[in-house]
């Protein structure tokens, strides 16, 4: 049974939290590793260096979309490839636990589950541009 009075606020909390996590992840790349250092790291993974800049922009725009509630359901799904890429290139080979050397894939996988849950729950209150998708609704 879903509590229709509190579920929207759960979506709001999840939406803002996931967006802040993407901002933190971006901040790590930008302020700690630097954009040039992040590009070098991508190259060390046999990825093109320019992909680091695309990823940082993707994280910034996705974070803003999630926090503000701009097409939340779509934004949540669109952010999943960033995390899948992190799992495939860095965290997957490191093992399961995030405490493993180079961080395992447990945390990014859980983050993906949070994004999927948000996409299923919906925008929540105070969304600047609700998605207006209704799953399971027949016309």
UniProtKB/TrEMBL annotation:
Say which domain of life the source belongs to. Bacteria
Q: Where are the transmembrane segments?
A: 12-31, 51-71, 78-98, 110-128
Q: Does the keyword Magnesium apply?
A: no
Q: Name where it's found.
A: Cell membrane
Its main subcellular localisation, reduced to a broad class, is membrane
- According to the record, the signal peptide region is none
The UniProt keywords, alphabetically, are: Cell membrane, Membrane, Transmembrane, Transmembrane helix
Instruction: Output the Gene Ontology cellular-component terms.
Output: plasma membrane
Give the way it sits in the membrane: Multi-pass membrane protein
Record InterPro entries: DoxX, DoxX-like_oxidoreductase
Q: Which family does it belong to?
A: Belongs to the DoxX family.
For this entry, the protein name equals: DoxX family membrane protein
Organism annotation: Vibrio eleionomae
Organism taxonomic ancestry: Bacteria, Pseudomonadati, Pseudomonadota, Gammaproteobacteria, Vibrionales
């Amino acid at each position: 049974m879903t509590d229709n009075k509190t579920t929207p606020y759960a979506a709001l909390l999840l939406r803002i939290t996931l967006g802040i996590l993407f901002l933190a992840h971006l901040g790590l790349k930008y302020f700690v590793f630097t954009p040039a250092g992040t590009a070098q790291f991508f190259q060390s993974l046999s990825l093109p260096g320019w992909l680091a800049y695309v990823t940082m922009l993707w994280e910034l725009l996705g974070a803003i979309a999630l926090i503000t509630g701009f097409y939340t359901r779509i934004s949540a799904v669109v952010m999943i490839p960033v995390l899948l890429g992190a799992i495939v290139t860095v965290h997957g080979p490191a093992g399961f636990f995030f405490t493993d050397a180079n961080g395992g894939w447990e945390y990014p996988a859980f983050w993906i589950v949070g994004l999927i849950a948000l996409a299923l729950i919906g925008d929540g209150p105070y969304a600047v541009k609700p998605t207006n998708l209704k799953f399971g609704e027949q016309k």
